[in-house]
Amino acid sequence: MLTVLSRMLFLKKIFEIKLFFKKVILISNKLSVTYNSGDNYMAHADLVLLDGNIITMNPKMPSVQAIAVKGNRIAQVGNNQKIKQYINEKTRVIHLDGKTVMPGFIDTHVHVVDYGRMLTWLDLQSVSSIKEIQMRLAERIKGVTIDGWILGRALNSDGLLEKRLPTCQELDTVAPDNPVVFYCQSGQTCIVNSRALEMAKIGQQNDSGIERDTMGKPTGILRDQATNLVWDVIPEPAQQELYKATELALEKIVQAGITSVHWIVLSEVELSIIQKLVEIGGLPLRVYLIIPTNLLDVSLQQLKHLENDHFKLGGATIFVDGYLASRTAALCESYSDALAEQGKLLCQQNEEVALADKIQNAGLQLIIHAVGDKAVHEALSIIQHTSRNSMVPRPRIEQAAVLNQQLLCHIKKLDVSVSVQPCVVASEFSVWSAEKRLGEKRVRWLFPIKELLDSSVLVSAGSDCPMEPLSPLRGVEAAVKREGLQRVSVFEALQMYTVMAAQSSLEFVDRGSIEQNKFADLVVLSNDPISVAVEDIVNISVHFTVSNGVVYCSKK
To answer: Which long-range contacts (CB under 8 A, 24 or more apart) does 252-255 make?
Structure first.
């Protein structure tokens, strides 16, 4: 009897041990990010997309019909038959009916807080007359205290019945007590009322960019650097206002099919906003944070420990020069339209090399803002004299606008990536008269994206929103429609917003293409940007954005 009992206890113990290891294996499988087609765990998917034109951006499998998603990862890709086996009663199934799916777009240069702040302004994009502007202003002023600022955006004089901007007096008739500033859709131009002129102390001083009537009085139209006179006196919103505006910006960014952003920080108040969003799980997309060097220490202390799948303190920016539009970009030779000006460098090389070493030693990507050819040369010299950290992404030059063959070869040799904003490129020609500013010889080397790509330089793309439109598809169109030798193909432009953008931040293992085990960051488009006519690319709409589930669904 004891023998039988002992054997039964022994078998029970063996069963308990087997059950324990089975549970361990099950838990291990659930924690794993790898889902092979033969895994028992992969009995069903949480989300399945069927019947699609799926552009994977993976050269080994360029297109598929369907995708299975488990948790926040792509579990399997293939044809409908292969993916249907992962469907059960708990699976959300979306029939795409031939719609195009791509990896979620990655915007490598966006000012999120400033974009949110702009979204709270009065939207004047669709107004058709000065009378309608006055009506919109009268409606907005009802909710504003006396002396409260009223800001507007996207005003286009060509779309107005009068074919001109309103005068400050026409704004005064509706808002005599509140300072009013309306920014135009293109160019560095705004229209202000008399109260705003007074607040900015714009009167008889002879500043360029202030338009005046025949009596010498300001009309309210400010251009170029004169717009800073009023911008500098607009009060900063309270932090809670900025937080709400940032939430709105993130919502709009996701609606554009963007699942990852390189968030360019400009002020310390942004760090607290980001910290709160990360702590409460309020980020609907993935953030690669890029900070100015003056916030390096506080950012490391405040944010580094918060890194997760949705947030990474990614890089820090050194500014070497300014911009072509203001002639502050540093050129080797004078501006063609201002022979006494060459711009200037903003730093001393020995100081910047030490700072660059500090950035990389902190585990952050070294990013250098350099626009003019002299500035790009200086940036490359800083990179050459900096100790490389193989654990962080390769150094990156932001814009690298004015190049030449020697600089291009040096960029390639040093294995430096370049971040461009295609809509900025378009604006340099259409708004800022790049050819007049640089001359025929140099303008041929302005943003030579095609030559960079053909030289196997890693080029990523962003919007520079809110200074330029947010839409990646508008950026693709701008890159493809560019005249001359620097025009790229649609596929090359899409690469800059997907695979190359992911490679630029050393995140290609997780995103940038539609492959098994990568994050299920996807965008569903109404049409195939590769197949439609170039002029129709901007008319493509975003139907779904997927990141940790469907985070945006169009009502159309």
So the answer is: 252/115, 252/119, 252/470, 253/107, 253/110, 253/112, 253/115, 253/285, 253/470, 254/284, 254/285, 254/545, 254/547, 254/551, 254/552, 255/542, 255/545, 255/552, 255/554
